Amino acid sequence: MVEFYLDIEVDSDVSRGPDPKTDKIITIQFQPLGFDFEPERDLTILKEWESSEKEILGKFKEIAVDKWVKGNKWKWDFVPVGDNLLFDLSFILERMEKHGFGNYGSWFLARIPKKNFETVAVLVNYGRFKGYSELFTDSDYPIKNTDIPRLYKEGEYDTIVKYIEHEAEYTLQQFQRLGKQHACMKKELML
Q1: What is the pTM of this model?
Q2: Concatenated DSSP letters of 91-147
Q3: CA dist., res. 141 & res. 169, Å (int)
Q4: Smallest Cα–Cα separation from 164: which of 152, 175, 154?
Q5: Which domains does the chain have, with CATH numbers?
Q6: Quick one: which of 37, 43, 24 has its CA closest to 165?
Q7: What does the pLDDT look like over 156-181, one tens digit per residue?
């Protein structure tokens, strides 16, 4: 089983929120992880502005989607790890369908092996959804996720890449912290 940090950025209208029917994916980023969510290699960022959305989705399909299922057998060669993975994975699969890569549907999405830290973060947040996402947001960093569409339209691609690299590093640090907290909680529950 190979785990990969996974996230995407989209060009969307911030006032209404992202919509996979109309908004495109501008980056897909992933990084192989080892024990305790330590990166094993550099972060890979597939950038739409260097080719096209269809091309980055095609590359991701070869790297990940085709590895999830071969014939009738599910594989564990690319296990996504992230926060709010249902958003990322649904968006990817819906955009793949738009570009003619196949119709994957909700059953496929449900079967993808994944580690979604949203669940653990809600538990650590005393079972509350409100505020859980702040665990994965560096409030001191000057760029926010909602700035990405504007930066994309302005052609500030280097700034977007810096944001993505910072977000990946910060998020993995939080995963490591949550993993340690979860291990302590599990140990206490077993006593």
Answers
A1: 0.88
A2: HHHHHHHHTTS---HHHHHHHS--EEHHHHHHHHTTT--TTGGGGG--TTSS--GGG
A3: 12
A4: 152
A5: 3-190 (3.30.420.10)
A6: 43
A7: 999 999 999 999 999 898 888 877 76
